[in-house]
């Protein structure tokens, strides 16, 4: 049986042949394989939801301190329970942004992962319906408060608030105090829910951070189109 027939047989049974090492399948594996000099000691999981990513990080980087940020009350409650057994993982009911203040989380009770920060203000806005008030701080301020000098791996998944999170880490970015940044990016120009890949790439290029890999590519499931809706894109500095 030739290689092509074997490949077709494997694909039919949900297996795949890849050349090794092959980047883009799992970011944690890629960090270990392609960035061996990066010692993952501090991880920020911004938009941690109920702890799915945190569990992966605890498995792959057992010596790392993992800081999970989740402003939604319901998600934060589940997150706290799910990470209880991970002694190096801590949860904070906070939103991270470009400046400190108070925000309003627009909560989707049907799809909790799609809750998003709608308002950023120094005042305290009123909440309506399923909306929730939340405290906002910046990555820079949080690091100063907790004596964190460097972030080795920053994951951002905030459903459209990602550029504000990045702006709140400006000092760390300028000093290259963040090794790896993974951001959920919109790949379809018609996708108005996620921040576009172009906007994120242009923002991070200002600090000389460039793409390292693309992960979890998702097609346009709301319309069932085959074009990409979003992907998680990892960036690293040229100096790494």
Architecture overview:
The protein has 240 residues and is α/β, with parallel strands linked by helices. The protein has 8 helices and 11 strands. The strands form 2 sheets. The chain has a 7-stranded mixed sheet. The chain has helices spanning 3-12, 27-34, 52-60, 73-82, 139-145, 162-167, 170-174, 197-205; strands at residues 42-46, 65-69, 89-92, 95-96, 101-106, 116-121, 132-137, 151-156, 178-186, 209-220, 225-237. The chain starts with a helix and ends with a strand. The longest helix is centred in the first third of the chain and has 10 residues, at 3-12. Helix content is 27%, strand content 31%.
Can you tell me the CATH superfamily? Vaccinia Virus protein VP39
Main sheet: which strands, in order across? 3-2-1-8-9-11-10
Put simply, the count of helices is 8
* Computed Rg: 19 Å
Give a short account of the largest sheet.
7 strands, mixed
CATH fold topology: Rossmann fold
Label the CATH architecture.
3-Layer(aba) Sandwich
Order of helices and strands: HHEHEHEEEEEHEHHEHEE
Q: N- to C-terminal separation?
A: 44 Å
Query: What fraction of the residues are assigned to beta strands by DSSP?
Result: 25-35%
Coarse morphology: globular
What is the domain total for the residues?
1
So what's the CATH class? Answer: Alpha Beta
**What do the pLDDT scores average to?**
86
Give the number of DSSP strands. Answer: 11
- Low-pLDDT regions: 120-128
Helix content: 25-40%
Structural class designation: alpha/beta
């Amino acid at each position: 049986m030739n290689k092509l027939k074997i490949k077709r047989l494997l694909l039919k049974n949900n297996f795949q042949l890849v050349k090794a090492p092959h980047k883009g399948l799992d970011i944690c594996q890629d960090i270990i394989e392609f960035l061996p000099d990066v010692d993952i000691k501090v991880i920020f999981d911004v938009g941690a939801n109920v702890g799915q990513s945190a569990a992966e990080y605890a498995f792959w980087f057992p010596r790392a301190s993992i800081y999970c940020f989740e402003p939604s009350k319901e998600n934060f409650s589940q997150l706290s329970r799910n990470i209880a057994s991970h002694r190096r993982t801590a949860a904070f009911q906070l939103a991270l942004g470009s400046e400190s203040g108070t925000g309003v989380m627009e909560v989707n009770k049907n799809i909790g992962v799609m809750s998003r920060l709608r308002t950023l203000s120094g005042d305290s806005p009123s909440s309506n319906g399923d909306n929730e008030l939340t405290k906002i701080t910046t990555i820079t301020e949080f690091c100063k408060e907790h004596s964190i000098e460097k972030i080795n791996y920053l994951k951002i998944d905030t459903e459209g608030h990602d550029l504000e999170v990045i702006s709140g880490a400006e000092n760390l970015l300028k000093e290259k105090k963040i090794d790896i940044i993974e951001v959920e990016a919109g790949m379809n120009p018609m996708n108005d829910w996620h921040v576009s890949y172009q906007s994120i790439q242009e923002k991070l290029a200002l600090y000389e951070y460039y793409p390292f890999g693309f992960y979890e590519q998702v097609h346009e499931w709301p319309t069932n189109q085959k074009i990409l809706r979003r992907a998680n894109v990892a960036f690293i500095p040229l100096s790494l």
